[in-house]
Write a structure and sequence with these properties.
Distance between the termini: 36 Å
Number of strands: 5
Oligomer: single chain
Largest sheet: 5 strands, mixed
Radius of gyration: 32 Å
Helix content: 55-70%
Number of domains: 2
Number of helices: 13
Structural class: alpha+beta
Length: 391
């Protein structure tokens, strides 16, 4: 029995983002599914109504309070987690004299205490709650076999949820590292472009100023020389504009190495081993951007749907073609083209490339993107309009 709490802190935000990747529906019905275990609160006294004649109304009243605490444990801030867990334990203490099925409240209490703080404090609280419940149970004279099952199940569920909480923290660290890799890569690229622009514009503007002054001095003495200097100023300005545009394109381009590192962190945080190429051949900004966005879309689909344990990325450069191959050992099967795959194919075709997908049921999926290795095709002029697109 697993009770994952939803809170408003950064760890909860991470769980929400991961649930978006896997599907939005699960988080909605999961709390309702966990309420199934509370059925024993009603089944236990109904199995022997002669021994518990006054169980119904106290049980209904306690269950109404329990639902409020249960909702708070799932959907309120983590700071109230211990309060909700202790409230469930209090319901167990109060209802047990009328209904031994109240032991279910103790199991829920142990389950939620596991998320209330550090593991040592959570274990301490579980031991205290179960010890107090044992004293009450023995004092009431109920059969010890049922107490033993409550103690074992409650403590086991609590320890299991402590393990889940620790794993969630580790996943959070990996996901944050995933975002940090992207941020640092973007920052390094911006700094590089800033230095390039500073060096480029500093030299160019100094040259333009010098040529302009010289042309002004020559206007009265030598019109031919003055015109030559003005033409030179025009040429230098056009060259500088072309270099600035190239630098801006570099800012907008996505780095393939950074995207591979980010993808590896994402998949490994989900238990998928990813093998990446050791080296990346020289690529133009347009080629690198298209391949990086292809990796991003492919890895996102792999993490969402493939249910794979391993994935491999290969990048091969021949005399005339660049080939990016992404392969997994997931479930494969028919793939319905969506906006992501369509955008991926369009970006490749703009540069004269192609996309091939082979997905056989039970044999994984192979995605192969191909681009010309030499000068870009004439259609590449439209590539700039595709650079900002995100899938």
């Amino acid at each position: 029995m697993y009770f994952p709490p939803v809170s408003e802190n950064s760890l909860a935000n991470l769980h929400e983002r991961r649930s978006e990747l896997r599907g939005r529906g699960t988080a909605r019905w999961f709390p309702l599914l966990m309420l199934i275990w509370s059925i024993w609160i009603f089944v236990t006294p109904m199995s022997n109504q002669a021994s518990f004649p006054n169980w119904l109304w106290p049980t209904l009243a306690s269950y109404a309070v329990f639902l409020v605490l249960f909702h708070g444990a799932y959907y309120r801030d983590r700071r109230y987690m211990l309060f909700n867990a202790l409230g469930m334990a209090a319901l167990g203490y109060a209802l047990t004299p009328f209904n031994p099925g109240a032991q279910s409240y103790m199991i829920y209490a142990c389950a939620f205490v596991a998320f209330s703080g550090p593991a040592r404090h959570a274990v301490t609280w579980m031991l205290i709650l179960l010890a107090m419940y044992s004293i009450e149970w023995i004092a009431l004279g109920w059969p010890l076999i049922y107490l033993a099952s409550t103690l074992m199940v409650g403590f086991a569920v609590g320890l299991m949820n402590i393990s889940f909480a620790r794993k969630a923290q580790a996943d959070a660290a990996l996901m944050l590292s995933h975002e940090e890799v992207r941020r640092l890569a973007a920052m390094a690229e911006r700094e590089r472009i800033g230095r390039d622009l500073h060096d480029l514009l500093g030299h160019t503007l100094s040259l333009v100023a010098l040529k302009s002054d010289l042309a002004g001095k020559l206007l009265d003495r030598d019109l031919v020389a003055a015109r030559r200097e003005i033409d030179e100023v025009s040429r230098v300005a056009r060259d500088a504009l072309a270099q600035v545009r190239s630098a801006v394109t570099g800012i907008r381009a996505a780095g393939l190495a950074a995207e591979l590192a980010s993808a590896r962190l994402l998949l490994e945080s989900d238990g998928v081993t990813m093998i990446c190429p050791a080296e990346i051949p020289p690529l133009s900004p347009e080629q690198e951007t298209v391949l990086a966005l292809t990796v991003r879309e492919a890895v996102t689909n792999l993490q969402r749907h493939a249910r794979a344990s391993t994935a491999r990325v290969e990048l091969e450069a021949t005399a005339d073609r660049l080939r990016l191959r992404i392969e997994d050992n997931g479930r494969g099967g028919a793939i319905v083209p969506g906006n992501g795959l369509s955008g991926m194919r369009e970006r490749l075709e703009v540069l004269g490339g192609s996309l091939r997908i082979d997905a056989r049921p039970g044999r994984g999926t192979v995605l192969e993107a191909s681009l010309p290795a030499g000068p870009l095709a004439p259609r590449a002029a439209g590539a700039a309009s595709l650079l900002p697109a995100q899938t």
